[in-house]
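hey m, so remember when u said the tokens were messed up on ur end? i reran from scratch. heres the input so u can diff it against urs
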Amino acid sequence: MYNLWAKTGRSIQKKGRPVEIQAGPGGAKDPPGGDGHRAGDRPAGETGGPRRGVSCWTRQKRQVPLIPRGFSIRPARLLDAEAIARVHVISWRETYGGIMAQTYLHGRTAENRTEMWQSALARSPPDRVFLVVEDEAREIVGFAYGGAAREAAHGCRGELYAMYLLKRCQGRGVGRALFEAFSDGLEAVWIDDFYAMVLHGNPSRAFFVKMGGRSRGFGDTPLPGRRGGRRLVDERFEWR
């Protein structure tokens, strides 16, 4: 487990008091070696600016976002696999009901996702950042996972593999806080630009735009499960 702020000497303000956020090494999006789902598949609340970061903020002088009262962000642990799988499955159903075939969505269960996330969390490459969000009841309600870019052709060193947040927690600043913690986690492992692939039609697209993401083009997604014979397309967002 490494300290997100160790290389910058910064602290984060949580409702007026400084707290330390840590990020642990960890596992995967739909992890590499999983079923290949792209980063934008996730409701995060589930990116421009001259440098990577949130809209008008800059790397040189940036306000640290407040974590909404009652929520906390921490490193993912192996024991979190089942809860992460639950968030993963629920988020897909909440977001893609009108985009993907219902038979495909309902074929994704927490049971068949748990093993995938256990495998991902068991790996600990040094360039991975895997964070979870807990609510007041200490229930995991979202997560962000990423690390070194898997497709060098895009020209970014890093990639946001997955970001999910349950719908009931969206619109409260939780997604923003999670995104910023993830971004700073990448910086702590010397990754200062990254991209995310967002499924076209994802209602969370506006979130990625609000976070300063710049659209850099479209491409066919490897995801199955298209509805009504429609072609699924990924949109690539970059933060530099």
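this time it looks ok to me. The longest strand covers residues 140-148. if urs says something different then somethings off w ur setup not the seq
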